[in-house]
Amino acid sequence: MKKKWGWLVLLSLMILSIAGCGSNNANSGGANTGTTGQAQSEESGEEANAAKGSYKIAISQIVEHPSLDATREGFLAALKDAGIVEGENLKLDYNNAQGDTTNNTTIAQKIAGEPYDLVLAIATPPAQAVAQQVKNSPILFAAVTDPLDAKLVDNLDRPGGNISGASDTNPEAITKLMNFIATHFTEVKSVGLVLNQGEPNAVIMASHAEKALEAHGIKLVKASVTNTSEVKQAAESLVGRVDALYITLDNTVVEAVSTIIQVANNNDLPFFSSDRDTVEHGAFATVGFKYYDHGYQVGEMAVEVLKNGKQVGDLKVTVPDKLDLILNLKAAAEQGIEVTDAMRDEVIDKENNVLE
Q: Burial code of 322-344, b = ≥16 C-beta within 10 A, e = fewer?
């Protein structure tokens, strides 16, 4: 009997052991099934994202000021209108060089070390740095005065390579503004220019302005700066030596433009600029366009690359084509300027470009 009971106990233990193994195998199988299901879910999620389209874009901007900020905002607005929205299907890497050339290079090197679907460079120095460093991502530039002189491209109609974009300067705009000065400010015999000689775009525009003024017998007097802290002193140095003030799309100078506005207002000097945003902030006049529209135009180019499969090197470099005279009447009063009907008549879109 004892032997029989022993065999029964042994048999029971064997059955329990087999059941336990079976249970473990079932649990193991369940766990594996769960893991497989999770992997399949993640994979299907990635496929869904890929089908929807998700993008990673880097932006390198030389400095923050109204024109360049408006360019960036217009760019992002064009993407959004095309369904590419930050926080949804767009990861944005925004970098500001704070006006420092060394920072431009560091930012470009960082961007070159990561995979991006597109890189946007705002202003000439960041564009040059990015073009030198980034070889595996399509590049678009904006707010660049002369892409040929900056050696970003060698053909405006068909740039080739991995770069294209939009110039923010049409030489015709400079000529028209200088003609406006000569026509309506006949007492002006010299125009003062605060200029950073280290910015190629500013130097090029200054050369255009100088030639246009020479045609009217007007002299361009330059006051050089190397950083924004010198702008006010440079502007003050021109008082008594010139009859009006002018600035180009000079990032160093525009960043401190409020100090030039102050000098112009305090000394009744007509102040002319190269961009609408500066006129909105207190310069009297420009021949220009909205930088938001300029950025939007570059954003549309980005959409062609990201969503429509275009090669960036096949996209033509564009220039502003909607030029108009823009007048600030409040600034005119501050600077002792009488705005005549003849001046107003030169404005095409008076509703939007005669600023009260």
A: ebbbbbbeebbebbebebeeebe
Task: Quote the radius of gyration of the chain (alpha carbons, Å).
Answer: 31
Distances (CA, A) of 344 to 74, 183, 280, 341: 28, 13, 16, 5
Q: Can you tell me which residue has the tokens 């006129």?
A: 279
Enter the tokens of residue 301.
């180019």
User: What digits encode the pLDDT tens for the residues 29-86?
Assistant: 333 333 334 334 333 333 333 344 799 999 999 999 888 999 999 999 999 999 999 9
47 class by beta-carbon count within 10 Å (0-12 exposed, 13-18 middle, 19+ buried):
exposed
Q: Which residue has the tokens 């000097």?
A: 269
Reduce the DSSP state of residue 140 to 3 states and report it: strand
Kindly report the pTM of this predicted structure.
0.70
CA-to-CA dists, residue 207 to 106, 139, 222, 275, angstroms: 31, 28, 11, 17
Statement: residue 228 has pLDDT above 80: yes
Place of tokens 């994202």: 49
